[in-house]
Amino acid sequence: MSGMSLRLRLALAGAAAVIVALSLAGLGLTALFGTHVQRRAEAEMAVQLDQVLAGLARQGQALRLITPPADPRFRRPYGGLYWQIETTDQTLRSRSLWDAALDLPADELADGQVHSHEIAGPDDTTLLALERIVELPASLGGGAARATVAMDAAELSAARRAFAADLSPYLLLLALILIAAQGAQLVFGLRPLGRIGARVAALRDGGVRRMGGDWPREMRPLAGEIDALLEARQADVERARARAGDLAHGLKTPLQALLGEAGRLRARGEDQAASAIEEVASAMQTHVNRELIRARAAARAAQAAAPVAEMVARIASVLRRTPNGERLDWAIDAPAELAVALDPADLSEALGALAENAARHAASRVAMTARQSNGRVRIEIRDDGPGIPDDALASIAGRGRRLDEDRHGAGLGLSIAAEIATAAGGTLSLENGLPGLRAVLELPAAANG
């Protein structure tokens, strides 16, 4: 259940609610219709009861029903409508009762008062009976008479079932309409959730800086909290970058002093001590330069935009004038509109290091291409040189290794390029081609690129 989508959960819950509500409504309407039918039946039976009493006459010493009700069911055996009159000395029954009698419960009724009962009828049926006790006039012999009219309750049940059967298709159609309307409401109502996902993805890719306030009222607090979190994180990152930059700058002066001291030792002929100091200072200076590059590139990337085609053309133009580059054929394919979210100086430094490495090892040709896809710019620099042995290439790409630890030509320049790419939210990968080495630099596209 926890893996079910929110839209599916709401759709299932809404459909269940619609079905339950309409089922209860159907039961309620059927019950209400049954009550209405019973009231109508009792009203009709009250008229028939009046007709039975009005048709009484005395013939000799006995009562007779001279004018029975007109409904033919009273005359058909077990026809579903019955009447019965009880006095102290005789009982009159409709022909429809045949040889049966209405078994009425003991009941105390005032003169003219009407009661209704459900009683057992002939042929194992259930009857709805309406009874009244009246005082007969002297012309009819006087005394009390208990008059009853009854009808088969199965007719009422059949009417309720017919009503339910007629009502069911309409309830089903209404349920389908309501469920479809709820589906449309879910699609429209949950659309902002999809926008949130797209906006968060744009935040990650650098397309936007904040969630903004163009959200429905219910979602604005969430967007505001995300923006507040982003601002807090950005402030923390800026402070961390500033500390790293301050630390790196603070170490540069002592390192220069160490190198100067090494120079003085070498001037006094203490070459071994001077070399040891220079080795340690150079390693520390490499780390310092790396942190400075990382802090500078990360700080500039969010606001910067560097034109790729212009940078590639400029670097190729410079390298063509170098001893390694003048002997090569330079192939450039980069659309003019491409731009990456990186400071132009940092892009120039990264591309320069990769292109210089390619020129150093190429036999006759260097190809530089750039393409954009899904908010990323892919820049490839390929040479036709010997490449890097596979075991060395695997060790360069290994976890925790630095590019400048390689002994096959991928030195500090590649390390700097990798640091710039990582700081800007991109990647640098190396792979052997057929022939040569291919360096792939992937960077976030600029917001307007």
Principal-axes geometry comes out as rod-shaped
Strand order of the largest sheet: 4-3-7-6-5
Poorly predicted ranges: 397-411
Question: Per CATH, what is the topology of the largest domain?
Answer: Beta-Lactamase
Helix content: 40-55%
Order of helices and strands: HEEEEEEEHHHHEHEEHEEHHEE
The CATH architecture category of the largest domain equals: 2-Layer Sandwich
Radius of gyration: 50 Å
Q: Averaged pLDDT, please?
A: 82
Helix-and-strand structural type: alpha+beta
What labels would you give this structure?
single chain; Beta-Lactamase; 14 strands; five-stranded antiparallel beta sheet; alpha+beta; Helix Hairpins; about 450 residues; five-stranded mixed beta sheet; rod-shaped; 3 domains
Architecture overview:
This protein is an alpha+beta fold and 449 residues long. It has three domains: 8-159, Beta-Lactamase (2-Layer Sandwich), CATH 3.30.450; 217-300, Helix Hairpins (Orthogonal Bundle); 306-444, Heat Shock Protein 90, CATH 3.30.565.10. It has helices at 6-54, 154-189, 191-205, 220-267, 271-301, 308-319, 344-361, 390-397, 412-423; strands spanning 56-59, 62-65, 81-86, 91-93, 114-121, 125-135, 144-152, 306-307, 329-333, 339-340, 365-373, 376-383, 427-432, 437-444. A hairpin with an 8-residue loop joins strand 6 and strand 7. The longest helix has 49 residues, at 6-54. The protein is rod-shaped and about 160 Å long. The chain starts with 5 loop residues before the first helix and ends in a 5-residue tail after the last strand. Residues 397-411 have low confidence and may be disordered.
